[in-house]
Amino acid sequence: MDSDDEYELLMEADSDVKVDDREFIILSRSDLLQTQKEEIGKVAELLGVEDAYIRILLMHFDWDSEKLLTIFFDRGKEAVYKSAGVRDPEETSLQTGECTCPICYDDGDASTFTKLNCGHQFCNECWTRHVSLKINEGQSRRIHCMSPKCNVVLDETLVPKFIDKQSHARYVNSLLDSYVEDNAYLTWCPSVPHCGNAAKIFSGTGGTVQIRCKCGNFFCFGCGEEAHTPCSCKQKKTWNQKLADDSENCNYLHANTKDCPKCGKAIEKDGGCNLVTCTCGQHMCWLCGAPTGQAHTWEKIEGHSCGKWKGETTTSPDKSRSALARFVHYYDRWKANDDTKKLKEKMVEDMMVKAEILKEESAFDVQWLHRALYQLFECRRILAYSYVFGFCMFDEEREMSAAEQKRNLLHKNLFEDFQEQLAVTTEKLSKYLEMTIADTTPHVFQEIINLTILNDRRCKALVDTIKNDILGEGAYGFGVASYQLNTEGSSTWTTSHSTHYFEAMVQAKKRQMEKEKEEARQEREKQRAKKAKEDQNEVEDAIRRSLMDVGGKVDHDADMERAIMESLGYGGNQDDDEDMQKALLMSQQYK
């Protein structure tokens, strides 16, 4: 099965991208050429116009065939042709005999000239220079007539006679680029290096669609950046601007200052103990920020304990400081989830090695481990951008009427409830996936499966709540993309590294595990030897005590052996003679 077939199966399996109700499709360059050709053919059949002119018309209307047809039938053919720079060929006639080029003023036979439907004609050498220049400058999509103030567009069927094959290939690619870049329903995949694919969305989506390309890139159709549901493109732009403006101040203030509980000013601790005093005279604990008295020692502050979290009980009178504190709240939580991206490659490699070893040692369906890991990545992404949505959506400083405030509070509580549910199960899934191979028991594996399914549902529930319950009324004037799991690479166990590299990783992990087992075995042997030595010392002490009980003198070997055996608890009727042999040996030593 090739990658395209696997991609189609993934699309069919995705609950949000059904076969008969897809939000988008992925097209390669060959698919684009075919789709473009079919669209041109359909419009040409409806209007009864040549394909070459249909392309010019569609490019003029940004490849919106519905708009072209509406204007064509409402305003008429002449109005459409005039605005698009197309002239009906029936209105012109061919010229024969000697001609003079109005550009270079050279005379020549009419066969060496090219005349457009507008009636203007120029020598082929001037056309060659003009067309080549436009192609080199990247303006080849609409090459106009060289006559001043004439907007007629050069027919694409005439272009090959003026340029070589290499330049013509660039010209064709430029026309294809126009089909994607000027089309409101198409966009290139922004992968680096470029995979050559484009995404086409269907009407009714409003452009708020997350695109999963065949190359594995997961991006937003609207802005071309990383997929960021449940926040909108505008909210993400606002957040990025906020990060650029406040991130450095935020990082420094959050790490080095605390608010005075009385005046709300930022206090920076420059040394000393944890009792600090603000310029307003208020004493406070540096650890928790609570107000205190002045009496203290190096070890504690009198009458104050801050070992438990009691929540925020004071409100800063400084509005700007309060706004910064609000930003810090959302920023910390956004960053904690967003930083997972930095560890993604290592986490995938570690999970692949772990799954390969578990696959050999157990009957687990290790495919679930990979699915669980990508579900964890998706949960982190959804949570990260949910904090962006919350920061931008529920701005407390925005002026609102009483009814709007009530609605805003209801939406905020609803949003935070679903967000908290997802955060809790995300942390649980993360904990189970971080367990060692030895700790991955059947119970743990079942929990991973259950949490993977539950987190998938909670991601969808959070996004659907925002999309339908909060934004569905249309009061806010924007929407967000539907949820779909980024199943990048989950259909097969593949990686960007070579197979040999992956096998080397597995073998290295196995060697590490064998080394750890050997070290554990040696440690057990060491402990057993230590215990045996301690037992022997205890026995020798008991023998000495027994000899001292008989006066320290033993005239006969039998008396010594009996004393030693009694100290060892040997009564003479045990089946095991190990103690007897030990006693005899010790008696020889004492002799």
What does this structure look like?
This protein has 591 residues and is mainly alpha-helical. The chain is 53% helix and 7% strand. The protein is built from 16 helices and 13 strands. The strands form 6 sheets. A 3-stranded antiparallel β-sheet has the order 1-7-6. The chain has a two-stranded antiparallel ribbon with strand order 2-3.
Quick overview of this protein structure:
The chain is mostly helical and 591 residues long.
List the helices and strands and how they pair.
Layout: H1 3-13, E1 24-27, H2 29-47, H3 51-60, H4 65-75, H5 77-84, E2 98-100, E3 107-109, E4 113-115, E5 121-123, H6 124-136, H7 165-181, E6 186-188, E7 198-201, E8 210-212, E9 218-220, H8 233-256, E10 257-259, E11 266-268, E12 275-277, E13 283-285, H9 319-338, H10 344-361, H11 367-393, H12 402-433, H13 442-470, H14 499-549, H15 557-568, H16 578-590
Antiparallel strand pairs: 1-7, 2-3, 4-5, 6-7, 8-9, 10-11, 12-13
Helix pairs in contact: 2-3, 4-5, 8-11, 9-11, 10-11, 10-14, 11-12, 11-13, 12-13, 14-15, 15-16
